[in-house]
Amino acid sequence: MKRTGSTAEAVRKETRNIAVSEAAGVAIMLILFGVLHLILPDKVPFDYRVVLAGICGGCVAVLNFFLMGITVQKVTETEDEQAAVRKMRTSYTYRMLMQGLWAVLAIVLPCFQFASGLIPLLIPGAAIKLRGIINANK
Q1: Which residues 6+ apart lie within 8 Å of 84 measured at CB?
Q2: 62 contact partners, CB below 8 Å, separation of at least 6
Q3: Which phi-psi region, left, alpha or beta, contains residue 3 (left: φ > 0; alpha: ψ -120 to 50)?
Q4: pTM of the prediction?
Q5: Of 29, 65, 72, 76, which residue is least crowded by CB atoms under 10 Å?
Q6: Domain, as residue range, for 68
Q7: How far apart are CA 106 and CA 59, in angstroms?
Q8: pLDDT grade, residue 7 (50/70/90)?
Q9: DSSP 8-state assignment for residue 1
């Protein structure tokens, strides 16, 4: 099966949608951190570490989605079903390792606030589910 321009365009379009959802989700998260910091300044931090971790976590989440899209695109070109399954599993493994490495860095490195680094990893899944619910009601 040959890669079509429409398949590549679909990956770009969906990645763009996820990137926009991710940016909005990280912005909302940062606003919530700010509000909670005003209410509970001793318990909820709000400094450069929160912002930096949120931005980096958002980038990791979008990259994960993009790499998944590229893998799906490549798998659709593969004639051998077992090779396609191996490609998907390998991609999944490496993408989970990437996210796991980010999670460790977000927790261990003092330049990141761990919660604001990990929360963005949940945003793409939530955005996809929300879009599915909205589109189902149309």
Answers
A1: 75, 78
A2: 15, 18, 19, 22, 124
A3: beta
A4: 0.89
A5: 76
A6: 5-136
A7: 13
A8: confident
A9: -
d(CA 97, CA 94): 5
- Of 25, 37, 45, which Cα lies nearest the Cα of 111? 45
Amino acid found at 79: E
Q: Are the CB atoms for 116 and 33 separated by under 8 Å?
A: yes
Query: Is residue 100 pLDDT above 90, yes or no?
Result: yes
- 113, 49 contact by CB (below 8 A): yes
- How many domains does the chain fold into? 1
DSSP 110: T
Residues of the chain with pLDDT > 70, as a percent, come to 96
pLDDT at 6 over 60: yes
Residue 50 CB contacts under 8 Å (≥ 6 apart), including other chains:
30, 33, 113, 116
AA identity, residue 4: T
Confidence of residue 8 (pLDDT cuts 50, 70, 90): confident
* AA identity, residue 19: A
Helix boundaries (H) for 78-111: 81-108
